[in-house]
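Running this now, will post back.
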Amino acid sequence: TIEKYVQKFNFQTPFVFNLDETRTQPRATSDIRMACPELVEARKLWLRETDLRTSLCVVAADGKVWMTLYIYMNSATSDSARKSRSGGLPVYYNAHQTRSTWPTLYARTKRGFMTQELFTLVLNRLVDLVNPHRSDIPILVFSDRPACHDNAQMLDDLWGHDCHIVWFPHSSTQIVQPLDGESYMKLKSGTKTKLIDRQLSCALTGESTRYMIADIAPEAEREELTREVVKRSFVDRGIWPFNPEKIAQKFGTHEKY
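Update: finished.
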């Protein structure tokens, strides 16, 4: 069982992680319509899609955010792709660390979503970041298991670095995954609020909104993903400290999973 596994390897709180993707741009059109209907009707206010499709956060059970990844859609004909080539929006085809509160990576994939190659890169980067701080303490990563995460060679390589992956049961992440709880709920709410405020401001000033979400997403993450919020997300889901009774209550019964 997971409980015995945790006891066997003596995992420590600062090195217990959860990582998860989320849609970067919230569906806030209805909120904007309610906030300022006259501008919407005049077609001066609307949400425009950008190439930034997905963000992924890597957080630890002690509340620390270790890394953020932004994934852009690789469209050679898009405005932001042209802008990145002209030295504007800082988008990189390979993951790249920048100066921030925590390391920030940028990548492009065909549809702006996660791939096996990119997921492997993220976990290898996490190991590199953690190694100077952990001595001989093993790493434990909780994650869901879509096809883009599941790579046997990656698991073998991580095992060699004393990094252990625990997959959540199928269709259970909305119940047990820490980031899917309070952390992303606050993040999405904060992003939506900032997006509406900035959209209204741009509508009044005539400024472009094309690249707005690329500025807002990091701001919202720094404000909403506080240590207290992230720690509570692990505790509330029963993931860390590992609490099988709390998890069982959320599922209803042990037998179902």
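Residues 28-48, 77-97 have pLDDT under 50 and may be disordered. More later if anyone needs it.
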